[in-house]
Design brief:
The protein is of the alpha+beta class. Helices cover 31% and strands 23% of the residues. It has helices at 8-21, 24-41, 50-59, 62-70, 82-86, 189-194, 269-304, 343-351, 374-380, 385-398, 501-508, 529-550, 559-578, 584-594, 613-621, 624-630, and strands at residues 113-123, 142-149, 152-155, 159-160, 168-175, 199-206, 212-220, 232-240, 249-260, 316-318, 324-326, 354-355, 382-383, 402-410, 415-422, 428-431, 438-441, 461-468, 473-476, 496-498, 599-608, 635-647, 653-664. The strands form six sheets. The protein has a seven-stranded antiparallel beta sheet with strand order 17-16-15-14-18-19-20, covered by helices on one side. Strands 2, 3, 4, 6 and 7 form a five-stranded antiparallel beta sheet that branches. Strand 12 (354-355), helix 9 (374-380) and strand 13 (382-383) form a beta-alpha-beta unit.
Length: 667
């Protein structure tokens, strides 16, 4: 491999920028002046040569210092093969942290512009003011900082929670162009000024029991660095709380921003401020016009029937930062690449994200509603039914289905959201995002004669007020909003009142507003399922043995029987994904062969969404069937336990545990 001729000027420019950065000229002048003074004071009259100057620079360590700082090992991508020259690399799509301990070296492409974002620590996290310093090895609550910028995702190492958390990390963000064919060219100052995508920062607190809490969600405008003559700036980012505390600061993060390579011509701070102001004014005007339209649309909807006032028609929803956004902006067409195989596996993945209502200080009547941005929901790993439904709808749209989020109620009138898909044959299927269950909708005809048998609803939904996706919003204007009576023919204007798609596009389409956070890509699981399964199984064996020891019972393990349980656990997970049960006959036959005549076999499977062994064991013991197996007494008792961990995107996991025993039956 050799350096292509067209790459030589770029390489020279990078070396020149680096020499300017370390102020090499002043160092050389200082050494030259010192050398000339020494020569003047010496007795010999020979003129100084270039060799003498080079020797003086080498003696002072200037040359070695420059060579060490250049890091030629990290820029091997400059030396490209002919094939690589003909096919320039594409912009990075996302980042997967496969190793939580070792830092990964990155090849720097001199054709690209990079933003080096360095977190220099936090301060004023007053909620942790009284928190004592943890001892070495002590389990404590931690902060983890997550980041998303233009399809690139990063996360910091967890650090102990403190008033001044020691988060010190560096992230190399690629700033690429959006135009087709322009992705491999270096972005100039004007292009970067027009990139209004913020850096989305999400701070998560994880307590000692692995429960996560969303501390802050912040959109950082990084373009202030474009005005820095050195290409570097340092700012204090005030992180605000979330939900009911969105007006209260959670803490301050010190952030350094640096462009690499730096701009040859910087942009005036006034120009940057003007650009930001114009973007805000444009977004505010779009929001104002949409609000005017939404009010007019709502008046027209109420004029159809007075009872429409009580229907669940939700046009706006507050995110974690207290910003009111149209509900359509929470849905995007989201493709999972090769991380998910199909719509049903997508539903399984979404159902593995735990459900938790937005926390609120104090008690009161009614539900405190908070819809989360997608990054905050994924990083936290849990959310309410609205977060699950919008994510599932986004994934189903990515798989090419005609999907909508339904807003309505379920049993006892509790507000709820779920997902609806319409087939080309007119069939309607409901998807429960919290459980991945699917229900085929069959409408009841209220005008049918009494003797005609009507379909019985299998779903838990009671009423539906509106449906929406990333392009449409439709309110139910049928005489009854009962789901079992509804006809989901969205083209029928007498049954569904639609909002203007152009009006929705003006405020909900990607890039339409600077206040809309960009949608992050899903990340692949970084954990090894076999290693996680083995570790949790060993922990379960230890807990069972200790529990039986407390009951003065011996524990003898049957490894062969434990192995046979694997096929059953795999079948359970496959059934959750596809809805199809398979492999049960083979499992039953294998167990019959492993259990001798005159012996009894008992098994108890249980499912978890976490990998905390002690929590899982304590939960299992609450079941009388499991307790009967673990505390089994009898003749020739043999115990077995098998654990299977199935990982999905974002390191969400489905954990299956089966406890089993066999013993000789004594009458």
């Amino acid at each position: 491999m050799s350096l292509p001729p067209e790459k030589a000027p770029e390489l020279k420019q990078i070396i020149h920028n680096h020499l300017m950065k370390i102020n090499i000229h002043d160092k050389i002048r200082e050494v030259l002046a010192e050398t000339v003074r020494d020569d003047t004071s010496s007795t010999h009259n020979q003129p100084l040569s270039e060799k003498d100057f080079l020797h003086a620079l080498q003696r002072r360590g200037i040359i070695d210092s420059v060579m060490n700082d250049l890091h030629f090992a990290q820029v091997t991508s400059w030396l490209l093969t002919d094939e690589e020259i003909q096919s320039p690399p594409k912009p990075a799509t996302h980042y997967i942290d496969k190793d939580e301990i070792q830092l990964r070296k990155t090849n720097i492409d001199p054709c690209r512009r990079y933003l080096y974002l360095q977190v220099l620590g936090g301060k004023a996290f007053l909620e942790h003011l009284q928190e004592p310093e943890p001892f070495p090895g002590q389990v404590c609550s931690t902060f983890t900082l997550y980041m998303h910028f233009r399809n690139q995702r990063f996360r910091s190492k967890p650090v102990p929670c403190a008033c001044e958390p020691d988060i010190k990390e560096g992230f190399l963000l690629e700033v690429h162009k959006d135009e087709i064919g322009e992705g491999s060219r270096m972005a100039d100052g004007t292009t970067m000024l027009s990139i209004c995508d913020p850096v989305h920062l999400v701070l998560i607190k994880t307590d000692t029991s692995s429960e996560t809490t969303l501390v802050s969600s912040h959109l950082l405008d990084w373009r202030t660095v474009l005005s820095s003559t050195s290409g570097k700036t340092c700012i204090a980012v005030e992180l605000m709380g979330v939900g009911s505390e969105c007006k209260v600061p959670a803490g301050i993060m010190t952030v350094s921003l640096e462009l690499y390579p730096p701009l040859t011509e910087t942009i005036s701070p006034d120009i940057i401020t003007t650009q930001q102001s114009l973007e805000r004014q444009r977004a505010a005007e779009k929001d104002r016009l949409f609000l005017v339209y939404a009010k007019q649309w709502w008046r027209e909807f109420l004029e159809i029937r007075p009872t429409h006032q009580s229907k669940m028609v939700k046009i706006f929803a507050q995110d974690e930062n207290g910003v009111n956004r149209p509900v359509c902006s929470y849905v995007r067409m989201l493709r999972a690449g090769r991380l998910l195989e199909g719509p049903r596996q997508a539903a399984r993945f979404v159902s593995l994200l735990a459900q938790e209502k937005a926390p609120v200080v104090g008690s009161g009547v009614g539900k405190h509603e908070q819809w989360c941005t997608l990054l905050a929901f994924l990083c936290r790993g849990k959310g309410d039914c609205e977060d699950h439904a919008t994510l599932l709808c986004s994934l189903l749209l990515g798989f090419g289905l005609d999907a909508y989020v339904c807003v309505g109620t379920k049993a006892k009138g509790a507000p709820h959201t779920w997902v609806l898909t319409r087939g080309t044959d007119g069939s309607v299927t409901f998807w429960e995002s919290l459980t991945a269950h699917r229900y085929l909708h069959q409408a009841i005809d209220p005008d049918a004669p009494p003797l005609v048998q009507q379909p019985k609803p299998s779903h838990p939904y009671r009423t539906v007020g509106c449906v929406f996706n990333h392009q449409s919003f439709l309110a139910n204007c049928q005489p009854s909003d009962a789901v079992e009576l509804c006809i989901f023919d969205f083209q029928n204007q007498s049954q569904w009142k639609a909002m203007s798609e152009e009006a929705l596009k003006s405020v909900c389409s990607p890039g339409s507003s600077t206040s809309l956070p960009p949608v992050p890509p899903l990340t692949a699981p970084s954990l090894d399922p076999a290693a996680a399964s083995n570790q949790l199984e060993l922990e379960m064996r230890y807990l069972i043995s200790e529990h039986r020891k407390d009951l003065d019972l011996a524990t003898v393990w049957d490894d062969h029987l434990s192995y046979l349980l694997s096929s059953a656990l795999s079948a359970y997970e496959l059934e959750r994904c596809t809805g199809v049960s398979c492999g049960n006959e083979e499992f039953q036959d294998a167990v019959r062969r492993a259990v001798p005549d005159g012996h009894t076999f008992k098994g108890f499977p249980i499912h978890f969404l976490h990998r905390n062994g002690r929590r899982a064991f304590a939960t299992s013991l609450r079941s009388p069937f499991c307790d009967e197996i673990i505390c089994c007494r009898g003749d020739h008792v043999r115990l077995a336990v098998r654990v299977r961990v199935f990982f999905y995107p974002e390191n969400t996991c489905a954990v299956w545990v089966m406890f089993a025993c066999k013993y000789r039956s004594v009458l």
